[in-house]
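Q: What would this chain look like folded?
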Amino acid sequence: MPFPLPRALLLAAAVLAGCKSDRPPAAAAPPSPAVVTVTATDFKLDLPATIPAGPVTIHLVNHGMEIHQAQLVRLDDGKTVADFEAAMKQNGRQTSWMKFAGGPTAAAPGQDATTTQLLTPGQYVAMCAIPSPDGVSHAMKGMIQPFQVTAGTAAAALPAAGDTVRLVDYAFEQPRPLTAGHHAILVENAGPQPHEIVLLKLPPGKSVEDFATWATTGGRQGPPPAMLGGGLAVIDSGASAVLAADLSPGDYGLICFMPDTKDGKPHFMHGMMSQIKVE
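A: My prediction, written as structure tokens:
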């Protein structure tokens, strides 16, 4: 004889309660970062006007004829893009109300670069500070694009990374050698100054010093003595980001071109460049 409906529901609830597992509930997987494509041309950056806060993957695609980057800079409250442009024209260097937030760098013509960084709500600019062979910064040629980071729902955590590179004054520290293949590299700025990391694939007989000389003297005449492998644009002290890198076996260079806060010389002149072997 079937149970009356209310009694049957009570019985089912009791049975389910008695079968309750003692195991803790599985942790929810963290949400994937928002993905934003930035298109670079000579001399413009195209990207959305608004981006959600949290971990954001920036995929830079270079359709220009020169090397480009998408340096992300957060402006303190009350500061505007006009203030930023005026500061760039005046001295071209960071001021206290500019916060370097990373972004992909060193994308050669026809190539791309990808990084993931944590963005907090506020007013930002994406810019390319790389100079043309005539010595004029791309930012001064129009490659400054404002955007707003709005409150998001993503957890404030970077995605997992299999390798780590620490930036210090003035060196790149690696717990273990990088190997061939695709890598998600956690880049930590443990130094007191802002830093960047540029990856260079070195052909036989060339060095990271050769590339530094080519990039900073003589208007970059002739072909570059290394292949650009992307990189992470400048991040402030204490910040971290994840750099995506596809590495083939061979010799590589790591270099930082950030001007020193004390004497204005690029950090590689203080020794912040190194050569590594990928196997």
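The domain at 34-278 is CATH 2.60.40.420 (Immunoglobulin-like).
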